[in-house]
Amino acid sequence: MTIKKVCCLGAGYVGGPTCSIMAYKCPDIQVIVVDKSKQRIDEWNSDVLPIYEPGLDEVVKQCRGKNLHFSTEIETAIKEADLIFISVNTPTKTFGYGKGKAADLKYVELAARDIVETVESGFKIVVEKSTVPVKAAESISTILHSKQKAGVEFQVLSNPEFLAEGSAITDLLHAERVLIGGEQSPKGKLAIGALSWIYQHWIPEEKILTMDTWSSELSKLAANAFLAQRISSINALTPLCEETGADVSEVAKAIGKDSRIGSKFLQASVGFGGSCFQKDILNLVYICESLGLQEVAAYWNSVIVINDYQKRRFSLRIVHRLFNTVTDKRISILGFAFKKNTGDTRESAAIHLSKHLMDENAKLAIYDPKVDKQQILDDLSHPYISEDPSRVARLVTIHQSAYEAGQGSHALVICTEWDEFVKLDFRRMYEIMEKPAFVFDGRKILDHEALISIGFEVETIGKRFNQ
Ligand code: NAD
């Protein structure tokens, strides 16, 4: 089966970059990315794309208007496509049964209903790109087959996405593996073959893994759980290091040399953020609990417990070092994105640190090179963060540079590992700050000895300088 037209429901952090690379690598395929949000589509069609990813602009500019299109005309795109990706959001439920843990599958279900309402003829491959609980494909398939339209046939595949924000383009171009899960029936195999053919335009065949649908769905949750677990494991050693005089960087170096452990993802920090790790682990915990697997649920939940503890512990340390009061003290938050090279702030450590410091009446001067002012204000005004949004207007200012934020501050708090923070002129910064001037390096990116020699008081994760 040859695929000529692909459509993707959802022009977000996954749908946008994934389809851009698909169009770039498959000139023989027309790729249409659709979204319910007109604003998002307008941005994809403009010079300022809705998301920041290194290398994305160039790819989009090269393909847009040729074989890559962004549109709000969802029905037309669905009708014309041979293969339809569902790449919509699957946030954690904020209400009702499973609140705070289960994935909210409302958007996935609506997408499946849009497809079944719209399709009038032909064999359509529907690909679950969103991260979903195990067996979600079964629900999608049931909805797709609920109308029993003559001449219409669907096959559902699972094809989870493993890109990491900040390196999405490289990850997509050089994927370590592509996972395709599907039925082992003749039609299932046909669909798997068709999707596999698309990826083979740029991914070596041996890196395309095919398996049953449920293993594929679970593999995505498991991959994120393992990655987050490593971060929580190294972070769980940091209070021990701080109490005993050990240095977590030395410990990480030592254990990382063991090839059974490996050195990647052993960077201690103020904690992980992002839209996926927490959401997907909570989802896994919820699935375990629903199956009566309480011990397994508790095991995975501990990854989240340590992550929350790490963020709380760091903010307490800031307050403690600033003489147990930060009321009306200006504190610079450097970095608001959840990691470098992205403008995404979802679940960022900066949001949680800011919340704790606002609760202590600190005045926050925030700077991030890629996050715009309104995004920061919206994040901090969210009911989960501020019970009284007027406090945000009173306590928070947003700045155009690290120096502007640092001016008159008692402390700099590094929340995101942006390269530009490493290159700051800290002598200049020291001059414009209140004294004693503190640096709280939540990402362990700065030269701490150099900062101490300038005169800064330095605090970081997993190491104490003032024992
Ligand atoms: P996102 O919120 O950035 O984008 C989702 C988009 O889907 C939104 O623009 C929304 O308007 C649109 N949408 C919702 N329902 C729609 C419908 N019926 N038709 C058309 N558009 C619709 O989300 P994202 O970060 O791109 O994540 C999408 C999925 O991929 C999630 O399940 C997520 O867990 C998973 N994922 C995300 C990442 C990541 O790094 N962000 C990585 C791997 C997997």
From TrEMBL:
**Pfam family of the protein (one):** UDPG_MGDP_dh_N
Q: Which residues form the active site?
A: C276
Pathway noted in the entry: Nucleotide-sugar biosynthesis; UDP-alpha-D-glucuronate biosynthesis; UDP-alpha-D-glucuronate from UDP-alpha-D-glucose: step 1/1
| Alphabetized GO MF terms | NAD binding; UDP-glucose 6-dehydrogenase activity
Record's keyword terms, sorted: NAD, Oxidoreductase
- Catalytic class of the enzyme: oxidoreductase
Q: Name one GO cellular component term.
A: nucleus
- EC numbers: 1.1.1.22
Q: Which reaction does it catalyse?
A: UDP-alpha-D-glucose + 2 NAD(+) + H2O = UDP-alpha-D-glucuronate + 2 NADH + 3 H(+)
Residue span, UDP-glucose/GDP-mannose dehydrogenase C-terminal domain? 332-448
Quote the InterPro entries the UniProt record gives. 6-PGluconate_DH-like_C_sf, NAD(P)-bd_dom_sf, UDP-Glc/GDP-Man, UDP-Glc/GDP-Man_DH_C, UDP-Glc/GDP-Man_DH_C_sf, UDP-Glc/GDP-Man_DH_dimer, UDP-Glc/GDP-Man_DH_N, UDPglc_DH_euk
One BP annotation, GO: UDP-glucuronate biosynthetic process
Residues annotated as binding NAD(+) are: 10-15, 35, 40, 88-92, 130-131, 165, 276-279, 346
Keyword NAD among UniProt keywords:
yes
Q: Where is the signal peptide?
A: none
| Assigned protein family | Belongs to the UDP-glucose/GDP-mannose dehydrogenase family.
Quote the function comment for this protein. Answer: Involved in the biosynthesis of glycosaminoglycans; hyaluronan, chondroitin sulfate, and heparan sulfate.
Q: What is this protein called?
A: UDP-glucose 6-dehydrogenase
